[in-house]
Amino acid sequence: MKKLIERATKNVKDEYKVRILIDPEESDILSSGIIPKNIKTNVYKSHLGIYIELIGKAEDVMRTEIDIRRALIADYTKNCGKATAKT
Known about the structure:
By secondary structure, this protein is α+β, with helices and mostly antiparallel strands. The protein has a single domain (2-79), classed as Ribosomal Protein S8, Chain: A, domain 1 (2-Layer Sandwich). It has 2 helices and 3 strands. The protein has helices at residues 2-8, 58-79, and strands at residues 16-22, 40-45, 50-56. The protein has a 3-stranded antiparallel β-sheet. Strand 2 (40-45) and strand 3 (50-56) form a beta hairpin. The longest helix has 22 residues, at 58-79. The two termini are 12 Å apart. 9% of the residues are buried. The mean pLDDT is 81.
């Protein structure tokens, strides 16, 4: 994972943005402490769900995005016994 992030951040500007679509029931992810203080967040509502936009240094944003996705997958597999997650 470290090499992947290093390659991706080679030619990136200082500010990096990522949007993650989550289910409205998972909106407690903002208060869970996964998102560090040095990353700015914007939250948008749409008909599909809630978008969380992460803005900050590329490496920090990518690590946070991976952590959020892992937390969502872990929560989903815990609540749904038949689900298996492959990443």
